[in-house]
Amino acid sequence: MSVGQLAIAWTLANSAVDVTIFGTRDASHVDEAVVAADIELGGDVLEQIDEIMRDAVPIAGPAPELMAD
Questions:
Q1: Domain assignment present for 40
Q2: Within a domain: 64
């Protein structure tokens, strides 16, 4: 699987994520992303990802629901 497919599969498997949004400028990338919906990441893979990301520096921006209209 590609890194993009892994990212989408991870968001779909992560109970802390309510929605997965992706964008692209190339229509062929849509087909690649759709395939990610059928990828099931096992618990061992999710644990490996958590371990890799354990020391990652969080990056955040403003919460959309708090932004003024």
A1: yes
A2: no
